[in-house]
């Protein structure tokens, strides 16, 4: 819906409180690799290394109102009707990540070139998988399944937080792959990293090319941090994804079912009332 209907109108229909942070600490690390490249493990590692709050896709679920801003930014970048690149600036990003010292994963990775320009002082990590096919299959089984059918989309029409989660996924996950991940996913992956490497070179900016198998040593050397004496953290496997998603959205789906039931009852009452008046008139 966003991209066609103004977000201000959608927010009137689906109201949620939005966070409105201002930057209260330096943004020191931009880890701009795509999801399913060890982003949660990297987020845990960056937190261990003292970079404060580390923004990650799962953390957005703690503040569902942030999805409104991410949808607004996604619409500004991708929409054919409401495109507005000037909105993709530091102040607008800080509204949702101003409390963070580092970022990983989606949705921030969807705005990676813009973030490179908005935060020139941050260190850059391009976390990736060497095996593109392995990444593709992992993404296909997890992130690409989000709101991919009417069974999961329909409840979004009856609960505001779910609605904005759906809209954010549409403009962060689907638009990056031209609305067809199965066909365009591998090409999107390669283009993402090529574009970021080119932007870093254009800025004369160093970056760390890193995989989760590389572990602590190259990461700590790049960030000028001592190597911890415990194993590199691990999180968010393919097997965990569906169960975790169900836990995160459980209450929202329950509210959607309740709201849909209320709407159904009201609709039946309205139809019965009209029928009674017509038949008795």
Integer-rounded radius of gyration: 21 Å
Terminal CA distance reads 40 Å
CATH superfamily: P-loop containing nucleotide triphosphate hydrolases
Integer count of domains = 1
Report the total helices: 11
Mean pLDDT: 90
Helix content: 40-55%
Proportion of residues in β-strands: 5-15%
Principal-axes geometry comes out as elongated
Classification by helices and strands: mainly alpha
**β-strand number:** 5
Give unreliable regions as ranges: none
Oligomeric state of the chains in view: single chain
Biggest sheet strand order reads 2-3-1-4-5
The string of secondary-structure elements, in order, is HEHEHHEHEHHHHEHH
CATH architecture: 3-Layer(aba) Sandwich
Output the CATH topology. Answer: Rossmann fold
What does this structure look like?
This protein is mainly alpha-helical. The chain has one domain (7-280): Rossmann fold (3-Layer(aba) Sandwich). 53% of the residues lie in helices and 6% in strands. The protein is built from eleven helices and five strands; from the N terminus they run αβαβααβαβααααβαα. It has helices at residues 7-13, 39-48, 66-78, 90-97, 112-118, 132-141, 150-153, 160-174, 181-203, 216-223, 238-280; strands at residues 29-31, 54-55, 102-103, 123-127, 207-210. It has a five-stranded parallel β-sheet, sandwiched between helices. Helix 6 (132-141) crosses helix 9. The chain is elongated, with a radius of gyration of 21 Å. The two termini are 40 Å apart. This is NAD dependent epimerase/dehydratase. InterPro entries: P-loop_NTPase, Sulfotransfer_4. Keywords: Membrane, Transmembrane, Transmembrane helix.
């Amino acid at each position: 819906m966003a991209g066609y209907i103004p977000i201000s109108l959608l927010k009137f229909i689906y109201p949620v409180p939005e966070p409105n942070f201002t930057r209260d600490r330096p943004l020191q690390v931009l880890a701009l690799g795509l999801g399913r490249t060890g982003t949660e493990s990297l987020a845990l590692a960056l937190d261990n290394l003292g970079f404060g709050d580390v923004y990650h896709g799962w953390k957005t679920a703690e503040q569902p109102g942030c999805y409104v801003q991410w949808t607004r930014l996604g619409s500004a970048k991708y929409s054919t009707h409401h495109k507005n690149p000037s909105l993709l600036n530091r102040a607008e990003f800080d509204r949702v990540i101003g409390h963070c010292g580092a970022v990983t994963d989606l949705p921030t990775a969807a705005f990676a070139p813009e973030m490179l320009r908005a935060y020139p002082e941050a260190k850059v990590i391009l976390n990736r998988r060497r095996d593109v096919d392995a990444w593709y299959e992992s993404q296909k089984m997890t992130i690409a399944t989000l709101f991919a059918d009417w069974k999961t989309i329909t409840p979004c029409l009856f609960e505001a937080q779910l609605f904005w989660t759906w809209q954010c996924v549409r403009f962060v996950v689907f638009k990056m792959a031209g609305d067809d991940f199965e066909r365009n996913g591998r090409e999107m992956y390669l283009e993402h990293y090529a574009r970021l490497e080119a932007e870093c070179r254009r800025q004369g900016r160093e970056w760390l090319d890193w995989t989760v198998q590389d572990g602590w040593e190259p990461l700590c050397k790049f960030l000028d941090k001592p190597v911890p004496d415990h194993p590199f953290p691990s999180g968010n496997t393919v097997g965990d994804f569906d169960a975790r998603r169900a836990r995160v959205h459980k209450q929202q789906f329950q509210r959607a079912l309740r709201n849909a039931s209320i709407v159904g009852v009201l609709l039946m009452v309205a139809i019965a009332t009209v029928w009674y008046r017509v038949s008795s008139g």
